[in-house]
Amino acid sequence: MGLLDNVLGGLGDNAAGGLSDLLKGQGGIGGLAEKFGQNGLGDVAASWIGKGGNAGISPEQIASVLGSGPIADFAAKLGISPEQASETLAGLLPKAVDQLTPGGSTEGADDMLGGLLNNLPGGIGDA
User: What is the pLDDT of residues 40-54, one digit of tens each?
Assistant: First the structure.
């Protein structure tokens, strides 16, 4: 199941659930992309969804788009500070969204995330 091992590896068993909850709270991948667009970062999110290279994002930009509540919730699930959570998400979201949208579209991406989480054996990093 390479996706979650590659994207979330080393973050602990709660990372997949935390990411899933975060994405659901944003309205899924499509809702997340819309929120980025509303904050002037639509081109960044579009690069993650589309084919080709992924634009980078800073922890500060992540915090600006998502807000302190969702970041605090994600941090609590991982047992890290909100600042660490923003840093983690700045590295994690581009890869996760990219791999969940292999066809360059958000259609079906949320179902794909749920399916991957349901099929994960025993937690992140288990073979």
Answer: 999 999 999 998 899
